[in-house]
């Protein structure tokens, strides 16, 4: 197993000024590299405290690249539906070069109705836009004189510049909430997976991982692919303190999430079956149940290590992305979480990373 940090902001101007948030995020990225962690990841969201301080992961990760030399940079994830594929392919290739070939690109469909409305894009076009754009971006990275005639975009022939440093292109991962079809498609295409186990049962995650890994092998790809799992994370030397504060930050995060998904009360799309239930799930999230079911990495190092062993038993060799800023803890507490994770948890379960 490998460990990195996921800089997922759940703040707005009333909670923390943006300049201070970015300064803190960059300090945590530098600490993650010094501590020997595997990656720094950040998300794309727009115009809401649920991730809205990160409307462009490339910008933040470029700043991380300038302050580090080894750690992987992961978009977790960019949303191709909201950006023209030529622009996004060039922007990501630029970051790959700036970072010396340390970029892994996660793509996501997005799921917040208000974001689609902001860009004037119908929710019902979500999957089709995702599939078309990701395939186009991979071709733009790999080939020259690319001509594309699709449902949503027509361009070319053109050769995107700069060319990616990693050849044929940076590792690609796709975010999947719960869809077996998405996981099968990722395995067949040789892409990695970004999953959030806290929103699914253990059995559901095991099911989609089995489908993914089987399709990966069937397609003839080496190994088993790369799977990154994101978990809320808060550590302290004192277990009682960690549980008390971890509960507080988890409740803040859930409240921000509940506000962000509120439009699903009156929104329906066949592209998102069952999403009308996410509002109730967010409102009724219970930290005690999350802790007991190993859906969060909260506690002293011994407790968190027990949870990590359980995750490994359930899901195999995966990469863990620790959300160390969600809920808006003070910087010193996030720094402590990163240090304890790197020094007292990761060394007991670390294995070699496979970057596809």
Automatic annotation (TrEMBL):
Residues in Luciferase-like domain copies: 1-314
RNA-binding keyword on record: no
Domain of life: Bacteria
TM segment ranges: none
Keyword entries, A-Z: Monooxygenase, Oxidoreductase
Protein name as annotated: LLM class flavin-dependent oxidoreductase
Organism: Pseudonocardia ailaonensis
């Amino acid at each position: 197993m490998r460990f990195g940090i996921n800089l997922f902001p759940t703040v707005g101007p009333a909670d923390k000024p943006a300049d201070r948030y970015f300064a803190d995020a960059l300090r945590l990225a530098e600490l993650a590299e010094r501590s020997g962690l595997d990656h720094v990841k950040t998300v794309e969201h727009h115009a809401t405290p649920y991730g809205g301080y990160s409307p462009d992961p490339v910008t933040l990760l470029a700043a991380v690249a300038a302050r580090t030399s080894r750690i992987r940079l992961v978009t977790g994830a960019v949303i191709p539906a909201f950006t023209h594929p030529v622009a996004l392919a060039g922007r990501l290739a630029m970051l790959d070069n700036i970072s010396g070939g340390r970029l892994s690109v996660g793509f996501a469909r997005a799921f917040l109705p208000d974001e689609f409305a902001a860009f004037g894009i119908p929710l019902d076009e979500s999957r089709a836009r995702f599939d078309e754009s990701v395939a186009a971006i991979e071709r733009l990275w790999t080939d020259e004189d690319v001509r594309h005639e699709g449902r949503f975009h027509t361009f070319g022939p053109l050769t995107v510049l700069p060319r990616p440093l990693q050849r044929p292109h940076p590792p690609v991962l796709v975010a999947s909430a719960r869809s077996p079809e998405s996981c099968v498609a990722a395995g067949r295409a040789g892409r990695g997976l970004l999953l959030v186990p806290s929103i699914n049962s253990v059995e559901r995650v095991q099911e989609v991982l089995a489908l993914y890994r089987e399709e990966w092998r069937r397609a003839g790809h080496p190994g088993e692919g790369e799977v990154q799992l994101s978990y809320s994370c808060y550590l302290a030397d004192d277990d009682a303190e960690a549980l008390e504060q971890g509960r507080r930050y988890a409740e803040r995060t859930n409240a921000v999430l509940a506000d962000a998904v509120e439009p699903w009360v009156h929104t329906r799309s066949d592209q998102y079956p069952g999403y009308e239930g996410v509002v109730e799930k967010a409102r009724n999230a219970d930290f005690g149940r999350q802790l007991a079911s190993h859906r969060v990495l909260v506690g002293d190092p011994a407790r968190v290590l027990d949870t990590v062993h359980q995750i490994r038993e359930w899901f195999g060799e995966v990469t863990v992305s620790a959300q160390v800023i969600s809920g808006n803890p003070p910087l010193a507490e996030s720094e402590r979480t990163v240090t304890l994770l790197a020094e007292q948890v990761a060394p007991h379960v670390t294995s070699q990373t496979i970057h596809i």
